[in-house]
Amino acid sequence: MKPHKSGMALIFAVYRLSVRELLRNRLGLALLVLLPVIFIGIGLATAGKSSIPIKLYFSDGIEQVLLSQHDIMLVFISSSVNGFLTAYFALLLFQQDFGYYRYCVFAGLPPTAFICGRFAFFITIAALLAAMTTLINAHYVPLAQPWLVFTGFLVLGIVYGSFGGIIGSFSRDFLVSFLGIFLLADVDACWLQNPVYYSASQENEFIRWLPGHFPIQMVLSSAFTERANEKAFSFSALYAVLFFGILFLLVRFQMGRVSRINQAVSQTPPAEQNARRP
Amino acid sequence: MTAQNACCRCESVTMGYGRKMILSSCTLTVAPGEVVGLVGENGTGKTTLIKGLLGFLPLRAGSVTVTAPVGFCPQENFLNRSLTVAEHLRFIATIGHHRFVTEPAYRERLLEETRLSNFLNRQIGELSGGTYQKVKFVTAIWNRPALVVLDEPCDGFDWQMYLLFWQLLGNLTAQGTGVLMISHLIHDWERFQRIYTLKEGALEAA
Predict the structure, then answer these.
(1) Contact B172, B149 (CB under 8 A)
(2) pLDDT digit string, tens, across residues B134-171
(3) What is the rounded average pLDDT of the residues B167-189?
(4) CB–CB of A248/A256 below 8 Å?
(5) pLDDT digits 0-9 by tens, A136-180
(6) Residue A62 pairs with which residues in a beta bridge?
(7) Do A265 and B98 touch (CB under 8 A)?
(8) Dihedral, B104, B105, B111, B115 alpha carbons, nearest 10
(9) Nearest CA in chain B to A105
(10) Closest-CA residue to B181 (of B83, B55, B49)
């Protein structure tokens, strides 16, 4: 049981522990498989082939496109599943076992190593989920710009994941936090951002500023048109940076409050510490 | 004992939550190789004092000086349930690598003596209450700290483990480690070299 030596190894150690935590979380793994299978499966089984007019928001205005119910359903449901799953995994990362890592900071883990390792794993999860949903979509729908669809899913994951992490940082009660992410994902990504819903809604100014709007617009416009949606891209990035930044600051603040006694004491060289022992 | 050689010293410490004052002007020292008990009725502020001493909670007044690397066994169950015992202990060794000097033989002996070597590949979430407590205690002394702070560490220990616990603490104190421990057990009180009693927010040295 030899310990690692370099400072960089601490970041990898935190990353590796995060991977193990996820792989041993049976509910998380079950949701990872069941949620896409159930939602997309039900959608595929029930969606018709008839075309529906939907609105897409570009920098230069609104474009109305005619798309099949099947294609809209698939891309939209994938966005919802992606958003919810990343929020759920981020909740696990920044809420469960947070007390353990606070203890580890007390025992000598630099907060920066924890933050780097944990956030790197969070980005990995968001990227994996984005890749998974893009591949599922590409299997059923000819995507116009697959890489931008992937980027849209990734940004959506970062926005929703950060939201999940923020909720988890504020409330240590898992059920309350789970309800919080479930409500936001349900109301925003699963209902208000549904193109069939917002295209026909009377007043959609509010809908257009919710966190899910720009990433989902980016996914939809990249999936169904050849046009670049600069507005959706830049606002998605802005929301992602904003939410990610808030989460980062919260975690940094909470870790910074942990006692640094062991780190202060470490100013005494270890050899000297041993020499003090009789 | 002089203030210079104490591995932990808190002087005139005052603490509270909100408007409520919990501790007033508490002074306490732990010298190398000494086992000091902190006792008192439930809710008198023993854990609060320890957390203030270790820097987890802010002080309203007074000062704390800790001159040695600390191992801490808190009262609450903080261990990561997804990890195996081996993964957890390896991580604790990793993060303490630059701060503590610990020989591998010390850790191997610790695992053998506490019989945790049989549980190394077991997930912490699957451990019994007593074994979980054993892992918490071993975590506190895993890096062979020069000061050990224990908050009711014997909850759930069987008699054999209880005796071993004191034997291990004895080995550490013989090498100069100071121990500060909260306990409600009368058996423990007999083993303390000095006892501080917390009563109505004030600390009395017995």
Answers:
(1) no
(2) 999 999 999 889 999 999 999 889 999 999 999 999 99
(3) 90
(4) no
(5) 999 998 999 999 999 999 999 999 999 999 999 888 888 999 998
(6) A57
(7) no
(8) 160
(9) B95
(10) B49
Are A167 and A86 a contacting pair, CB within 8 Å?
no
CA distance A81 to A73: 12
Q: State the average pLDDT over residues B15-31.
A: 90
What are B115's two structure tokens? 């019989």
Q: Encoding tokens for residue B192?
A: 């303390």
- Chain A residues in contact with chain B using a Cβ-Cβ cutoff of 8 Å: 1-5, 9-10, 13, 17, 20-21, 24-25, 97, 99-100, 102-104, 106-109, 258-266, 268, 270-271, 273-274, 276-278
Q: Mutating which of B49, B91, B136 best tests the A interface, going by the most A Cβ atoms within 10 A?
A: B91
Query: For residues A208-238, b (16+ Cβ closer than 10 Å) or e, as one string?
Result: eebbbbbbbbbbbbbbbeeeebebbbebbbe
Specify the pairing of strand B178-182 against strand B147-151.
parallel
Sequence ranges of the domains in chain B: 3-205
CB-based burial label for B197 (10 Å; 0-12, 13-18, 19+): middle
Per-residue pLDDT at B188 exceeds 90: no
What stretches of chain B show up as alpha helix (H) in DSSP?
46-54, 85-95, 104-114, 129-141, 159-174, 186-191
Chain A residues lying within 8 Å of B86, measured CB to CB = 1
Among chain B residues, the shortest Cα distance to A276 is held by B176
Measured CA to CA, the distance from residue B184 to residue A203 in angstroms comes to 65
The residue behind tokens 């570009």 is: A58
Whether residues B99 and A271 touch (CB distance < 8 A) is answered with no
Cα B151 versus chain centre, distance: 6
Give the per-residue pLDDT at A192: 80
Candidates A232, A257, A6, A21; CA nearest to A122 is A21
- Right CATH number for B3-205 from 3.40.190.10, 3.40.50.720, 3.40.50.300, 3.40.50.150? 3.40.50.300
Q: Is the whole-model pTM more than 0.80?
A: yes
Q: Is the distance from CB of A144 to CB of A222 less than 8 angstroms?
A: yes
pLDDT below 70 — which residues of chain A? 1-6, 259-278
The helix-helix angle for B104-114 and B159-174 (nearest 10°) equals 160
Please tell me whether residue A61 adopts helix, strand or coil conformation: strand
